[in-house]
Amino acid sequence: MTEETIFSRILKGEIPCDEVYNDSVCVAFRDIQPQAPVHILLIPRKPMRSLQDAEPEDKELLGHLLLISSKIAQQQGLDNWRTVINTGAEAGQTVFHLHLHIIGGRELKWPPG
Ligand code: DGP
After folding, report:
1. Does the beta carbon of 67 lie inside 6 Å of ligand 1?
2. CA 16 to chain centre
3. Distance in angstroms (rounded) separating the CA atoms of residues 101 and 72
4. CATH number belonging to the domain at 6-104, selected among 3.30.465.10, 3.30.70.60, 3.30.428.10, 3.40.50.300
5. Using one digit for the tens of pLDDT, what is the confidence trace for 55-66?
6. Per-domain boundaries in the chain
7. Is 8 helix (H, G, I), strand (E, B) or coil?
8. 33 alpha carbon – ligand 1 mean position (Å)
9. Are the CB atoms for 55 and 12 separated by under 8 Å?
């Protein structure tokens, strides 16, 4: 059985979100704890715990997510942004449903913490 997460509940409409994009494959909404003026999460409708669980059959899905993340960033008026996928608790992953962070609207330092 697929593990329930905050994001699977958002997908089911059980938890509200500030949605900015959706299609048959993915949904994007504003992060509840924004780390920058623009901070959006993009999640696949297909449940996947993390990038570690991606299979070769997910190639098209992963490509779609990257292309849509760029479209969303530009729709938000960004020319500079960062796309982040935290994989695993020690890398900062707290919600175990694959998600891309789209972060921008301020200068971003490197390396990340
Ligand atoms: P990560 O740490 O990479 O797993 O990112 C999870 C993000 O999810 C974190 O930035 C906060 C955000 N988040 C957690 N709960 C909710 C929620 O209920 N709604 C929204 N919009 N974002 C959430």
Report:
1. no
2. 16
3. 11
4. 3.30.428.10
5. 999 999 999 999
6. 6-104
7. helix
8. 7
9. no
User: How far is the centre of ligand 1, averaged over its atoms, from the C-alpha of 95 (Å)?
Assistant: 7
Phi, psi of 75 (to 5 degrees): -65, -30
- Ligand 1 atom, smallest distance to 96 CA: 4
**Cβ of 17 less than 6 Å from ligand 1:** yes
Distance between Cα 68 and ligand 1 center (Å) = 19
Note the pLDDT tens digit of each residue in 86-101. Answer: 999 999 999 999 999 9
Low-confidence ranges of the chain (pLDDT < 50): none
Atom index in ligand 1 nearest the CA of residue 15 equals: 18
